[in-house]
Design a protein that fits this description.
This protein is mainly alpha-helical. Helices cover about 60% and strands about 5% of the residues. It is globular, with a radius of gyration of 26 Å.
């Protein structure tokens, strides 16, 4: 009874923190951002409106770059709550909360209640999980599938000879494993098979259950029920792929080159172009950048802040034992290193490492718990072993490092608030930002746009962030053990809400909602977007409009535009000039930097500004 009550308290506390962070920050403003954020929200709306849940469409053009499950989940949220920006965020916020809870339960199963709670808390309050759930990308859902797969693998193998309670339903977990893999495929393609498969193979090889002859080898494959698992996997993952192939033939094309103007159907584009050629860096269109490999590795220290300071303590843990805790740590380490190495040889984005956060959270939670009294864990169903003797020393060093970093951040923020105390803040923040497009490959690249004057617009979020760092500095310096950990978690919760406030200030710069509101109030007319769809996608979401794309047959919509029956929504300069000089009212959305080029096409006298926001313009000719 006491153990169950302790588990309930851990669940309630962890869920409260995760809900406060992820559900508490899904409200609007800030609105959906231009680029992938509003585009994915609009894809789901188009599914609901058209009834076509097989081939997603954007601006009427088939969009088959991504797997469909994230759009299905957003669409279901729309059907329940209506079409709103916050409704589009609900599946991702709930996935983040569920990911934290599953990670905690996994940690409790492997290490004990205290270490499990710390694992979930680390994940819920690290920078990376918060940052990469601000936009509608499925990586948090993929991370959930990966951690469920890893946990299912261990429980299906049922190798816990050290545990007081052995696994009662290994066959059930052997079914959960392929089901989770199939869901992961519907979330983000074949990547989940690579991550889970690669980590599992390395893990099984290290514990000598992969190629060893005799009983252990045969027991491994019998425990996983491979034939049944394959049937479960195909039953979930195959139907959509088959239907999409039938809708967009030819069915099988293995061409190993990608060039403009070529159309090879769904199979080639989705499997060959988006998986094989993207990994090799040969995909066309090359509408993506890549983060330098060393940067990709090192940024994970930032994404795990403040808990990355405890990583040395995690390295002191035991990984070689045959007990459940050691095997879990080894599997988490295999999953982490395999993904990092895999993307070292591929095109890379910062958020590609998100699936390793649960594994690292498990290691960090175990390390943090190792610095506290472990005696009670003997009563929680595990023989806790493998804690390094030097972990307490490194935990103390990590705690002091967090205190110094938080104190330095608080001092810098105080200096900024003093520096801008008399600086006016008229209009929106875009007036005082400088643009650095070369830095936008990085998720925090827009921080380089900030000027001293810009901080005048950020006084309130800066004040809250400063308070957060003061809490973290004081708690880390004056407290120890559990109380210091909770103080650091409180620091991050406050900091995340300060970040949401800052994103609200950046809203006109990162999104285009004010232009959509002006367009909705203006007289009816034909809408034209200057360039590709993504840079102005929030206008089209909030105005709920389609548009002609001026010189926009590129990037994400280029391949779909070649599909039979794709609408003629792409125009060139000559067609634009003809439309603009006709009697029908037209609207053009463009960037202020492109205004001179537009004037040369139609003349300054024929351009009237309807609205301006964030450096973007809504123009008309009447």
């Amino acid at each position: 009874m006491q153990r169950r009550a302790r588990a309930w308290r851990s669940d309630a506390a962890l869920l409260a923190v995760a809900v406060l962070v992820f559900v508490g920050c899904l409200i609007s403003p800030p609105g959906l951002m231009d680029d992938v954020d509003a585009s994915h929200a609009q894809l789901a709306r188009n599914m609901v409106r058209s009834g076509d849940w097989v081939i997603p469409h954007l601006n009427g053009v088939p969009y088959i770059e991504k797997a469909p499950l994230p759009y299905w989940l957003i669409a279901i949220s729309y059907l329940i709550f209506g079409v709103h920006d916050w409704a589009a965020r609900i599946p991702f916020a709930l996935s983040a909360v569920l990911l934290c809870w599953v990670t905690m339960r996994y940690g409790c199963w492997a290490f004990g209640e205290r270490a499990g709670f710390y694992s979930g808390l680390v994940l819920a309050t690290c920078v990376g999980l918060f940052l990469f759930t601000r936009i509608l990308i499925p990586d948090v859902m993929l991370a959930l599938c990966v951690v469920v797969c890893l946990w299912s693998l261990q429980r299906a193998l049922n190798e816990d000879s050290d545990a007081i309670e052995t696994e009662k339903h290994p066959g059930l977990w052997a079914a959960v494993l392929p089901a989770s893999l199939a869901v992961g495929v519907l979330l983000k393609g074949l990547l989940v098979l690579v991550i889970v498969g690669g980590a599992s193979i390395v893990y099984l090889a290290l514990i000598r259950r992969l190629f060893s002859r005799g009983t252990s080898f045969s027991q491994t494959w019998r425990a996983l029920h491979l034939v049944r698992g394959l049937l479960i996997f195909l039953a979930i993952a195959a139907p959509w792929h088959v239907m999409a192939m039938r809708r967009m033939p030819p069915y099988f094309d293995f061409t190993m080159h990608s060039e403009p103007g070529e159309y090879h159907g769904f199979f080639w584009f989705y499997f060959m172009n988006e998986h094989v050629l993207r990994f090799l860096g040969l995909r066309y269109p090359r509408d993506y950048n890549t983060v330098p490999r060393l940067t990709f590795w090192l940024l994970n220290l930032l994404w795990l802040f403040p808990w990355s300071f405890y990583l040395p303590a995690a390295f002191k843990l035991g990984y070689r034992g045959a007990d459940r805790a050691s095997r879990t740590r080894l599997l988490a380490l295999c999953a982490t290193l395999f993904l990092l190495v895999f993307f070292t040889f591929s095109t890379t984005q910062e958020y590609y490492s998100l699936p390793i956060y649960p594994s690292l959270a498990l290691l960090l939670g175990c390390a943090i718990a190792s610095g506290q009294d472990q005696d009670q864990d003997q009563d929680e169903g595990l023989l806790v072993t493998g804690y390094g003797t030097g972990s307490v020393k490194w935990l103390n060093r990590g705690r002091i490092a967090v205190a110094w970093v938080a104190a330095a951040a608080a001092v810098v923020i105080a200096g900024l608030l003093i520096a801008v105390r008399n600086v006016p803040a008229p209009g929106d923040i875009s007036r005082v930002l400088q643009q650095n497009p070369s830095a936008y490959t990085l998720s925090l690249g827009h921080l380089g746009d900030l000027t001293i004057q810009a901080f005048a617009y950020l006084r309130a979020p800066l004040a809250l962030a400063g308070l957060a760092f003061l809490v973290g500095a004081a708690g880390s310096w004056l407290l120890s053990g559990r109380r210091a950990v909770l103080a650091q978690a409180a620091m991050m919760v406050l900091f995340f809400h300060a970040s949401r406030m800052a994103l609200t200030v950046f809203d006109p710069y990162l999104g285009s909602r004010p232009l959509a509101e002006a367009l909705t109030k203006a007289p009816q007319g034909r809408l034209i977007v200057d360039g590709a769809y993504y840079p102005y996608s929030s206008v089209l979401f909030y105005a709920d409009r389609t548009a002609l794309l001026l010189n926009g047959r590129k990037n994400n919509l280029e391949y779909g535009s070649l599909a039979p029956g794709s609408p003629a929504v792409f125009i060139g300069d000559q067609e634009f000039a003809q439309l603009w000089t006709q009697s029908e009212r037209c609207y053009l959305i463009t960037d202020g930097l492109q205004l001179d080029r537009v004037r040369k096409l139609v003349g300054s006298a024929n351009l009237k500004t309807v609205a301006e926001s964030g450096g973007k313009l809504l123009l008309t000719q009447q």
